Amino acid sequence: MRSAKRAARVREVQERLLQVRVSELEEAARRREAVHQARDAWSGRLMEAAAPRQASISSAEWTLWQHWAAFVAGRVAELGNQLDAAERKVEQCREATLDQWKWAKTWGMLEERAAEEERHCRERREEKDREEAFLLRLAGERGEG
């Protein structure tokens, strides 16, 4: 009964961890998509802002404007990549923590099993000692009589 309750609790915790993991992955995907959209939006806005002026500015200025737009888009992409790398690092730490939790849980179960086995062996030893004492008493009574 005790192990059934423990197994139910373990399943419940694992399900909660899985739900948290799924929601975190979904949130990371939403953030990543927002970064990509922001990068595209900035690049597009810069080009839209420059488009009406394209006819009135020199080709060197237009090229400079395009380079500036590419730089801003590249910087936003770089920040997005840094965000992705940070999220991967957090995920690695979370998985390491989960592995440690699983190991601790397994270690606890092993300790519990060892204590149970030790108790069982002690009970068998006590039972054998009682049987031996009974047999010695019985043999002593027969020897006297």
From TrEMBL:
It comes from Kyrpidia spormannii. This is Uncharacterized protein. It comes from the Bacteria. InterPro entries: Flag_assembly_chemotaxis_eff.
